[in-house]
Amino acid sequence: MSSKTVAPERARPGKTLAVWTPEDKAFWASQGQAIAKLNLWLSVPALFLAFAIWQLWSVVAVNLPLMGFKYSTNQLFWLASAPALSGATLRIFYSFMVPLVGGRRWTAISTASLLLPAIGIGFAVQDANTPYPTMLMLALLCGLGGGNFSSSMANISFFFPKERKGSALGVNAGLGNLGVSVVQFLSPIIISVGVFGVLGGEPQHISKAGQVSEVWAQNAAFVWVPWIALTAAAAWFFMNDIADAKASFAAQAAIFRNKHNWVMCLLYLGTFGSFIGYAAGFPLLIKSQFKDVNPLAYAWLGPLVGALIRPVGGWLADKLGGARVTLWNFVVMALAVVGVLYFLPKGAGSAFALPWGPVEGSFTGFFLMFLVLFFTTGVGNGSTFRMIPVIFIDLKTRRAPRNDELAQAQAVKEGNTESAAVLGFSAAVAAYGGFFIPKSYGSSIASTGGPELALLTFIAFYLLCIVATWWFYARRDADVPC
Q1: Residue 263: which pLDDT band, with cuts at 50, 70 and 90?
Q2: CA-to-CA distance for 88 and 430, rounded, in angstroms?
Q3: Which of 33, 102, 187, 340 has a CA 20 to 30 Å removed from the CA of 365?
Q4: DSSP element (H, E) containing 205
Q5: What is the pLDDT of residue 209?
């Protein structure tokens, strides 16, 4: 590898970086930090848009019956959860794309692909006779946004030194996650105004409580189209590829033989899987349990809290240790679910309703407990993603001779490659939470009369995560203390 470096001010936009050594403090201070930050701040809006498209159906599905679409409740739950199913599956493939294709190229291509569901949904919701299979296919295409997270996080992980990865990944994911809350907050507003004029199509008429009003449901999708095109172009022209980040699939596939890959998949399923699952199912859960509450007036606040706190979770993990933050975070998550159970209505005849708590339930208590849950998912998202690079770089460097600089440098490179693959793959596994949580609500309500059985299952899962975190990373003689 050449020792020649290229000053940031000379680097042409989109140029492949032939030399990238962020662990070298002199290189980082003189040129690496500026390039890394540029790529981070271009990655954030791309990921923001990906999350917005991914979660678009969580709000669109709620309004379809009012617009004359004759879909059953089960079909609506499928529309809300299908993007998570396809997004999680796509993440498996996206996990390995950055070292194969390049971070700049893949960010631009994957962002541009979001135009397909955005434009398709915009046209489909204008006709109440649109067949359900068409709607389901568009919901599955929204999974393109879900897939982007794995490649985005893997890409950004290459740009920053180990001691800054937690904060950088927390910023990328945290601000990117804001797309969930923004789409839930913005959609009810944007559909009420014909902002696109004749280009946006005709309004639809909805009837609610005897009142007929006009909405432009297509605006919820069309509003993202120009931003997607602009962001894809910016990524293509101004981001960077890293030559040293190139790796074959075989080199990345080594993670499947490492038990820590699977442990971190479990822990990230508990944090991010909870975040995206609760976000996808929150509006419909509110609607099913508190009939007099407008779910879209409140649901966006949960993902907002989780997204904003995620960078803090990464920062706390950098300062206090990822394992410590993650372990206590899971404790609070389990307790928060107990609080949700306490405040649920008890009069629905659920076989698993708690014998205590207000009979009619308390929306205020229920909502506050969910805000705590979203808060903890954000903290846990940041702390677990800080743990992954530390674990895999430490595993590699401890096996290399301490006094051999070349061996240590190669170990760091291999650790970065594997940690990037684990970041992506664990994100893929965790994304299935966006499917299973809302579907668990629906299945629990259908079989027992309420969502309590699903929530009790979540508590059991968080207890498993507590034990795994303590055993592998937090106890005195842990495999990889972090």
Answers
A1: very high
A2: 7
A3: 187
A4: strand 204-208
A5: 62
Pairwise CA distance, residues 301 & 75, whole Å: 25
CB-based contacts of 398: which residues, under 8 Å, 6+ apart? none
> What is the C-alpha to C-alpha distance for residues 394 and 128, in angstroms, rounded to an integer?
56
Reduced to 3 states (helix: H, G, I; strand: E, B; else coil), residue 414 is: helix
Rg (CA), the chain: 23
In terms of phi and psi (left: phi > 0; alpha: psi -120 to 50; beta: otherwise), the region of 62 is: alpha
**Sequence spans of domains, the chain:** 14-474
| Residue with the two structure tokens 């649901």 | 299
Per the rule left: phi > 0, alpha: psi between -120 and 50, beta: everything else, 197 is left
Cα dihedral sign, 150-153-157-163: negative
Burial of 128 (0-12, 13-18, 19+ CB in 10 A): exposed
Please provide the CATH number assigned to the domain covering 14-474. 1.20.1250.20
- What backbone phi and psi angles, to 5 degrees, belong to 348? -85, -5
**DSSP for residue 22:** T
Average the pLDDT over 105-128 and give the result. Answer: 93
